[in-house]
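TL;DR need structure tokens for one chain.
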Amino acid sequence: MTIATATHPEHSTLSFNLNSSGTGAAQTIFMEGSPHMINVDAPLMVGGKDTSPSPISYVLSSLISSAQVTAQLVAKDFGVELSAFEFTINANLDTAILIGGAEEGNPNIKNIVLKATIETDISDELFEKIRVETERRCPIYQLFSKSGANVRSQWIRQAS
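>> reply
TL;DR here they are.
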């Protein structure tokens, strides 16, 4: 099965409006039009009180969740189902600029290894096509990839 190539629809933009308030490194972020809020803090080593996940933890967790959502959309386009997902992620952040104020370097996350174990009964060939298409379409994967981060992913197909 081949996925159809879609043209860019005229009105395909989602808007996100957020507001925050806080003290020190801790803050609460509110999403307009939603009952959800996000509590954020920083680790002790960067001046926070470590009462909530850090912004880096959130951005890495958003890569995991966005990959899963995108994979489900892609699988649906291929007419197949992906069952349970398990992810691990490992990333390295050079803190020389963030903490030390170094003049040179890149404050971005350098290396990200994303490992996904997914239950499905599809073929290895189709599974690989879904992985490639998921990485192409996933906004958070592309955000990291286009930022210069070295993003590597390993997908493991586990029979349902």
